[in-house]
Structure formats: C-alpha cells, structure tokens
Amino acid sequence: MSGIDEEQLIERVIVARAELGVTSNAELLTLLESDFEGLTMSEVKKAASKATKRTGGAGVPAAAEPPSPAEKAPSKRQEKAQEKAKGAALAELKSAEATMMEAQRRLRAAREGKIGSLNAVAPVNIEGTAEQFIQRITQAAIAGIIDADDEPFIKLRIEADIAALEWVKMAQENGAISLKENVIALGMEVQLARLIKARDTKDMVAGRECYKLVEKPLPARDVSTPVDANVELDARMKAHSAMQQTGSGEMEQMD
Question: Helical H runs in 36-181?
Fold first, then answer.
C-alpha cells in the first residue's frame, strides 16, 4: 500500500463495521477514500480481510436472511407429537420439583436434629404459598446466602441448592417462570456450576466458599401447622398444565 498506513486503514475498517454497520467493501471504499488519498478497492479488500481475521469475524454484519416461506399449519400427527412433548416436559419439571422439595426435607431434618427419626419424613413447613416458599429458597440459592442454621450442614445445603437451581433452570426453559434480568440467569448458571463441582469433588471447603454468611436467619420457614408443599405444588402443576393447553395465563415472574 503505497502512501497509505495499512494499520490505520485496518482499524478504520473495524470501527466502520462495528459502529456504522458497513456491510460491503464498496461501502468501505466510499466511506474511507476521503481519508486515505488514492485508496483502491484492492487495498480495501486486503484491509477488510485482515480486519476480519483480527477480530475473529466479530463486528462483521451478518447478511440479511431471505424471507422464509409461509409456514404450513401443523398436521394432526405433529400436533399430537407437540402435545406429547409438552406432557413429557411437565412431568420432568414436576419430578425436578419433587427432588427439590425432598432435598429441603433432608436439610430441615438435619437442622432440627431429626435425621434417623420418623419426623425426618414429615412435610416441609412453609409460610405463605408454595410459590413463595420456592421463591425464597431459590433466591437464597442464586445469591449464595447462608445463615447459622444451615452452615453446619453445608453438604446438605449444597444438595438442596443444586436441586433448587436445576429446577429454576428447567422451569425457565419450559416457560413456567421468567427471570427478569439476564444477569440473574447468568449468576444462577455460575453458582450452579460451582456447587456441582464442589459436590462432585467432595470439596466442602470450596463449597462453603460459594456462600456468604448472613447475621440474621433467612426469611421465616415455619408455621404452627405443617403444610405439605408437594400437595400445593401438585395443584400448581395441574393448573400450569391447563394453562399451557388453553394458551391462557401469564408467566410467573421471579425477581
């Protein structure tokens, strides 16, 4: 490139693509020829190629996709397959909820010193609705908050949080809930990966490092009359199933 600073030209190509959405070498030539005297198409092509390699393709606007033909209405066989898939997804989600609640039972039994007793299989006591209870435990799991009651039982708490976060992930994928912020979803994925690694390697020191201790206990868990959360969850899942079949209702929102 006689008389033209190649590095400067490459940088200008990168900026033009990223900030102005320039899609072709012809547009690059028109845009840059006033700044680079005697600039040729050959030089633009060479600089554009090097810019693409340097950025790994980032910043190169994707070519517009051709409009797709009108979609045909699904056949009866396809509709039946879709309904079957929905039913399987709901069953899987309900199974994950049962696993989550069972993990909460084990953690509760350990906290209350009832492991090995008949009370260890008692229902989980919850305050408010089942949805509110699940929201509390999943928020604590995502935030990595632990109190003095749970700290001595870190292994069980890790198992409970893994079950809770896996349920949230599955429920989000199935449209049963919606995380309001992408950062929350990302934080959930990071925390889940850390907890699974600690569990699989049996490294409880690393597991404890996934949490921050709070002075006050987590929101109230117990009420005077035990409530079997699985009963309420079962009713909720039936309602959710009916909602999906009719297409009515709104997604739950989880802060």
Answer: 41-55, 76-111, 130-143, 154-173
Cα separation, 150 vs 141, whole angstroms: 12
What tokens does 149 get?
């009651």
**Cβ-count burial 94-117 (b if 16+ within 10 Å, e if not):** bebbebbbbbbbbbbbbbeeeeee
Q: Which residues of 211-246 are buried (b: 16+ CB within 10 A; e: fewer)?
A: beeeeeeeeebeeeeebebbebbeebbeebbeebee
CA atoms of 22 and 31, how far apart (whole Å): 9
Q: Which helix (H) or strand (E) is 178 found in, with range? A: strand 177-179
Phi, psi dihedral angles at 146 (to 5 degrees): -135, 145
Amino acid occupying residue 211 = Y
Q: Quick one: DSSP state of residue 177?
A: E
pLDDT, one tens digit per residue, over 30-85 is 888 888 888 888 898 988 889 888 887 655 555 545 555 555 677 888 888 888 88
Task: Answer yes or no: are the C-beta atoms of 142 and 188 closer than 8 Å.
Answer: yes
Coil, helix or strand for 65? coil
Q: What is the pTM of this model?
A: 0.52
